[in-house]
Amino acid sequence: xxxxxxxxxxxxxxxxxxxxxxxxxxxxxxxxxxxxxxxxxxxxxxxxxxxxxxxxxxxxxxxxxxxxxxxxxxxxxxxxxxxxxxxxxxxxxxxxxxxxxxxxxxxxxxxxxxxxxxxxxxxxxxxxxxxxxxxxxxxxxxxxxxxxxxxxxxxxxxxxxxxxxxxxxxxxxxxxxxxxxxxxxxxxxxxxxxxxxxxxxxxxxxxxxxxxxxxxxxxxxxxxxxxxxxxxxxxxxxxxxxxxxxxxxxxxxxxxxxxxxxx
Length: 263
Description:
Helices cover about 35% and strands about 30% of the residues. The chain has seven helices and 13 strands. The protein is globular and about 50 Å long.
């Protein structure tokens, strides 16, 4: 088993978004990923997303509840759109990264072994020669990841920037969710392998002697070009950006301001 320690890609997201504000925009490829998430042995997905990568922007369409998230790298911001309420909220990447830093510090100070692990995760990495899956093991979390090769280096970069920012944003907007840092480690390995996941299976051991393991599986269908219907979805999202009523993030979420110290 190869030890999966600190990788050189640790700051891919932070560096990538920071450079976008000062340097000429990097080349980008257009592609799409359909994602279905399953919990346990359920055959019906718990959630479904369509993620569209166009240039240096990413549009993520969640089906239930319907929500659109726009990752606007050139302006270093993320915009949440709620079509049902016709409202939007904007959060800067600087704020997301600051929250993430505070969350890591908070996790590291907790007595819970899982939270301590999440603050500075370390995995043993191996290759399953039968399935071809990458396997990341630890006493707390195990990931099995099937992958497809990214067509270009830019696609690999685009994907990891999106995946990292999505994980950090989810931790900020969904109090009590799993801290993002273990998943960021997996993204680092994928980036160095120039790969995109086609399936990710996360298993967490029982938290008590009589408990059962928790398993969540996501399946990703990757297509290297956008469809005409995708362009129409993007156009609709851009129209929403122009006309929806702006709210603070706290009002949009309907909750107090997120704080890593009050989790």
